[in-house]
Hints:
Elements: E1 4-8, E2 14-17, H1 22-35, H2 37-43, H3 46-57, H4 66-75, H5 92-96, H6 102-105, E3 114-116, E4 121-127, H7 143-146, H8 152-158, E5 162-168, E6 175-177, E7 182-190, H9 199-204, E8 214-220, E9 231-237, E10 244-247, E11 265-266, E12 271-276, E13 280-286, E14 291-293, H10 295-300, H11 309-314, E15 321-323, E16 328-332
Parallel strand pairs: 1-15
Antiparallel strand pairs: 1-2, 3-16, 4-5, 4-15, 5-13, 6-12, 7-8, 7-11, 8-9, 9-13, 10-12, 14-16
Helix pairs in contact: 1-2
Amino acid sequence: MMSHQYIERQTGEVRSEELYADRVINFLYSTVRERGGPLFRAVTGRRMSAVLGAVNFDLGYGPQTARVRRFLARNGVDFSECLVPEAALKTMRQVFERQIRYWDCRPMDVDPAAVVSPADARVVVGTMDSASLLFLKEKFFSFPELLGGDRERWQATFVGGDAAIFRLTPDKYHYNHCPVTGVVADCYEVDGCYHSCNPTAVVRQVTPYSKNRRVVTVIDTDVDGGSRVGLVAMIEVVALMIGDIVQCYSAHRYDDPQPVEPGMRLEKGRPKSLYRPGSSTDILLFQPGRVEFAADLVANRGRPDAASRFTIGFNTSLVETEVRLRSTIARAAGRMGV
């Protein structure tokens, strides 16, 4: 099986990713999916996903075990960023749900027009226009289905707009932060499956992100003190072994977390939600002509020196860039050079 590579944003270097449970995922999305429809549906259902999550993250895997130590060392988890010492994290679930001093270790551009990454993740950006080389519309997700079948209003709002897909790997910090400042226009859950976000699974399963359970938050940024990039849809997508998406917005650090509701004001860079636990995906949708993506993210997408599984599966160059939480990924249209 070919390797999966991405671009490290800070250095521009090509890195190879060791995909978590790659052999298991390959088996599920080849043999099981093709030969055992009911079994495949059971494995990617809510109940089995919860069981797999408990086995992998809660049962007997404290930080003293060789397995956990190997995982942490191999993935370079930096415990100096954490609010609690390493010894206080006694299960893999606690490792994945750790809190960090983001106000110190994830600096953010003060420009109100800057749109920031909602997570430590690997991102691919592009347009949802039908002529786009990215083919986001029918590969990663079916656009109308992604937002929910009864949300025609929002479907019309984002037609022909831009999109950014953030893939969180199991070693990452799993809080999502607000990418923009604005007021919540809508927030709702769409039921669905629990497909893996491993690149092999994404390539083999048709439009997986619009099949999975997800939470959609639409943010109006054209308000006083807002980011002024129009309406922004933030879609948090569960994956295999993800038990829940907890909405827990905090205006100051992690203090006094609140559920996200319409009418609430969200400040850019603040914690918004938490995946419990494992790997998962964030998607940002923008209205046409309202943002310009950072030039390096656009250029990296077509890098011929990186071997991406997305490139092979989608027949066009799709290389991810690793970005840090609260780093700038786009600006309001006409402000990229500012």
